[in-house]
Amino acid sequence: MNIGAVERDTGLGKDTLRVWERRYGFPLPDRDDKGERLYPADQVARLRVIRRLMDQGYRPGRLLAASEAELAELSAPPVPVNATPLVENSLLLQTLALIRQHDVPGLRQTLEQAMMRQGLQGFVLNTIAPLNHAVGEAWTRGELEIFEEHLYSEQMQSLLRRAIGNLTQATGQPRIVLTTVPEEQHILGLLMAEALFALDGASCFSLGTQTPLLDIRMAAQAQTADIVAISFSAAFPARQMAPLISQLRTLLPENIELWIGGAGANRIPAQPGVILLCGLQDALSALANWRQKRAQPADGL
Amino acid sequence: MNIGAVERDTGLGKDTLRVWERRYGFPLPDRDDKGERLYPADQVARLRVIRRLMDQGYRPGRLLAASEAELAELSAPPVPVNATPLVENSLLLQTLALIRQHDVPGLRQTLEQAMMRQGLQGFVLNTIAPLNHAVGEAWTRGELEIFEEHLYSEQMQSLLRRAIGNLTQATGQPRIVLTTVPEEQHILGLLMAEALFALDGASCFSLGTQTPLLDIRMAAQAQTADIVAISFSAAFPARQMAPLISQLRTLLPENIELWIGGAGANRIPAQPGVILLCGLQDALSALANWRQKRAQPADGL
DNA sequence: CATTATTATTGTCTTGGACAAATATTCGAT
DNA sequence: ATCGAATATTTGTCCAAGACAATAATAATG
Prior knowledge:
2 copies of one chain form a homodimer.
Chain A: H1 3-10, H2 14-24, E1 30-31, E2 37-38, H3 41-55, H4 60-65, H5 68-75, H6 90-100, H7 104-140, H8 146-166, E3 172-179, H9 188-199, E4 202-206, H10 213-222, E5 227-231, H11 238-251, E6 257-261, E7 274-276, H12 280-295
Parallel strand pairs in A: 3-4, 3-5, 5-6, 6-7
Antiparallel strand pairs in A: 1-2
Helix pairs in contact in A: 3-5, 6-7, 7-8, 7-9, 8-9, 9-12
Chain A binds a DNA duplex through helix 2.
């Protein structure tokens, strides 16, 4: 596996891989006859573990110096016995079990029934959010593979899109353009927000994921949007978020609000002219807020 | 705009941008006080034009030496008057017009009606494929912005996912795992294939886009798949495809077939053990073929 | 104990060179 | 003149070692 393939597989940049080798002595790939790096499978596997733990908050220096055993220990920390808050939620456990068994039809049916029972809004607020969190957690603990996360994500995406499609297409206020920035490919947060906003009568225009910043501006202007809503997943690199957001804020006209949501939103420092939605409840109240402000324009700001 | 942002926005690698600067003198970015490259907006815009034309088949040496006027000429080649094959297809023109007007509800309704009229299979084979091609063409000519392509793609994706979801979940043979490789984010080709396969009674397990190769293998084994189907869009860098495919072929067990489809599939040299689907008709006949082969195992191979 | 200053960590950018795969072109033979 | 093989050019990716600034962790201070 050459360095480009490892970058694709682990999400770690080429520069990062080379500088780790220089500084920490790991990974230490073989070389082919032209002197280029060839990473053995076990080193790639270890890099994926390290990547997971970094997303959990561990620092590289610690992880790269750690022994095989230490990594395994960090991956599966001994769960404190007193904390068993999840047992009560049988749907959650059931879903995780279905994912692990790769039972796609069962997964689909279970989720569908849950949505029917709770209604779309309740499903989004009370089921999908904790479910996403649980799946992410399981992944960071190494209990789920990436492809299992993909299976889950695909089913949930299908379900949400079908539900959104079945809604009467709203034509009300406000008009919201939804998307993610380049390199952010997670769409579930976006779809959840779209479902909530659409249920509440707002006009939603989703661009899907990874729209260049210049195109976000063009789209907002073309749709005469009141709001641009951007979603960041928990996995998005924290150091890139702040500059990206302020650049986007500069690009957008002042009268268009910029809402930032998703699991990554709580790691962002507050910025003027940017509304952070830390949680889906915030999204609903922000929408109510916006309407109130429009109803009573004397309120100021 | 620094070099990382340009890489995101244009899809051109950092190394490529630097080597172009050295060899061709373009792009020639400003430098900040630490000596790092800062690309002005007009150079980024020109790079996006160049990227478009490269996807059309022009070579970098030509494009980077070209003047502003030449680029404009290549972008909008004088259409030969005799060739007007598209006029007959009013749905196509109507759809393009709706995209340009950013009329999302109209777009959605038009596509939905077309699908109802033709049925899912006819819609996929006779409408979506030429529509995708037309949208891609319009984009390469600079007539559509990226965000307009996103709008179209989102609507089509919703429509297809709803249609697939409404099918009775098939449990027949063969069992097919569908996905794309990392860095390939276009999903429409995958959904079209899934629709056709599912209509024909195959069991489909879609992983969505960008699954690491190791996870593709794990998924195929977990689902006891007969076939792994990978989609490449026209925009995928040609030089990466062949090594990626042969690496995947090595990873997969021999009894699992590897099918490669999508608009980019016709630029791939034939490889043993890999079945290239150049067009959606090929997909259907490959499926028929597979079944025939299983029915008459004496056929050999 | 809270807050500020210092030190360590870490990702990304820099240069200029090298090489091989892909593509174009030339040459020779039928 | 046309096809195929041999040669030349183009082009993306990789390498090395160094530098810097932003972040996080630690020490020093009120």
